[in-house]
Design goal:
With about 400 residues, the chain is an alpha/beta fold. The chain is built from 11 helices and 15 strands.
Length: about 400
């Protein structure tokens, strides 16, 4: 007697003939699963044998073959901003409008108005981690102002009022409730769902604590959107800008920045950061305004900010980061440009360059040293400074 995996060997549990691979028999499989033999049992036996044997022996890991039936392309809850089954971070300064934009996204999903798999098909949105008072007095009014279908908005809450959701401990509870019902899960503040940690800038530690959350959301095929504050220091790269109170990249594989419009401080921009799932290198950005919206609900007047006049734009991440530089940084950049323009092929003293550039002599000296390191200025053979040869 033999099978496709070789000669039949003894079952390690009952001593009878073993099934494929010599890891157990049909009888032990049925006993372990609590199922009665039926015509489909053999198929389940061959498919799930490894998992059952692992369960009987209290193993924690096993191997399995690649299952091409599960292969599929990346799908988007909002294309290309929020991939399905992944967590997307929305980062920005405090009071820049992140929560207002978050409410806008949630509202559009409940109306089926965003490009992606839910376009034309309104989806449910679940909010996690909202403070009870903020939920009633801030989040709900924002969603109403944004035009959300409130019948498709739900809140994840603790049955015990003293319990706080912990991404590491309670993701199983979230998984249980998600099912395949929700298009998007919104985490209002990512810091609020993390357990106490010694170092929030340790990427390995962050990945460990959010792994259960990633698995829960991925298994439910639900998109995730969470907000986080950015590093307040000026930066030339998105990774540096997003490096706030925790390591960027350890929490999410996709992120976008909310910031002031570089050409219009009264408007905001949303700019997609480097994304693993977007093929092209074109800038993906939106320009929008935040306007005050007044309405009455239950005889109570509300005045709430909401996203308005949203449109696609060609603003790049570099445009936003350089446009947001401080007055000091801008002045320094302008002085560097003036010194560069003053340099010629003819040697000049520091004093002569300072006069031509309109920059203090001491500042010119420091700038020239920097430019020398950058190979943009060089010392003349005799004396003075000249423009570097290209």
């Amino acid at each position: 007697m033999s099978n496709s995996d070789g000669p039949v060997t003894a079952c390690p549990f009952c001593g009878g003939p073993s099934g494929p691979g010599g890891r157990g028999c049909f009888k032990c499989f049925a006993k372990a699963t609590g199922q009665k033999p039926d015509p489909e049992m053999q198929e389940r036996f061959e498919r799930d044998l490894g998992a059952i044997i692992a369960k009987v022996n209290h193993y924690q890991f096993d191997t399995r073959r690649a299952d091409l039936s599960k292969m599929r392309p990346v799908e988007y809850v909002w294309n290309p901003w929020i991939p399905r089954g992944r967590l997307t971070e929305m980062v920005g300064e405090e009071k820049i409008g992140k929560s207002t934009f978050q409410a806008h996204v949630a509202a559009r999903i409940t109306r089926g108005q965003l490009p992606g798999i839910f376009e034309g098909k309104p989806g449910k949105v679940l909010f996690v981690g909202a403070d009870e008072d903020d939920w009633s007095t801030v989040t709900l009014p924002r969603l109403v102002a944004a035009g959300a279908d409130m019948a498709l908005i739900e809140e994840f809450f603790a049955l015990d009022a003293a319990l706080v959701f912990d991404a590491e401990k309670h993701s199983g509870e979230l998984w249980r409730l998600l099912g395949n019902e929700y298009a998007l899960v919104v985490f209002e503040h990512l810091m609020d769902i993390l357990p106490a940690m010694k170092n929030y800038n340790d990427p390995a530690a962050l990945r460990r604590v959010v792994r259960p959350l990633r698995r829960a959301r991925g298994a439910a095929d639900t998109g995730g959107l969470g907000t986080r504050n950015v590093n307040k220091a000026q930066a030339q790269r998105f990774r540096q800008r997003a490096q706030g109170s925790m390591q960027w990249g350890a929490m999410a594989r996709s992120a976008f920045l909310i910031d002031r419009h570089p050409d219009d401080p009264q408007r905001r921009v949303a700019v997609l950061g480097p994304a693993n799932y977007v093929r092209d290198d074109k800038p993906h950005s939106l320009s929008f305004a935040i306007t005050d919206h007044m309405f009455v609900w239950g005889e109570h007047p509300y005045s709430v900010g909401r996203v308005a006049d949203i449109e696609a734009t060609n603003v790049s991440m570099e445009d936003v980061l350089t446009g947001g530089e401080s007055d000091r940084d801008r002045r320094r950049r302008e002085q560097r440009e003036a010194v560069l323009d003053a340099l010629t092929e003819e040697p000049q003293s520091v004093r002569e360059i300072a006069v031509a550039a309109g920059v203090p002599k001491s500042t010119v000296q420091n700038i020239l040293l920097d430019l020398e390191v950058e190979h943009r200025a060089q010392r003349a053979e005799d004396s003075g400074w000249i423009a570097a040869e290209e």
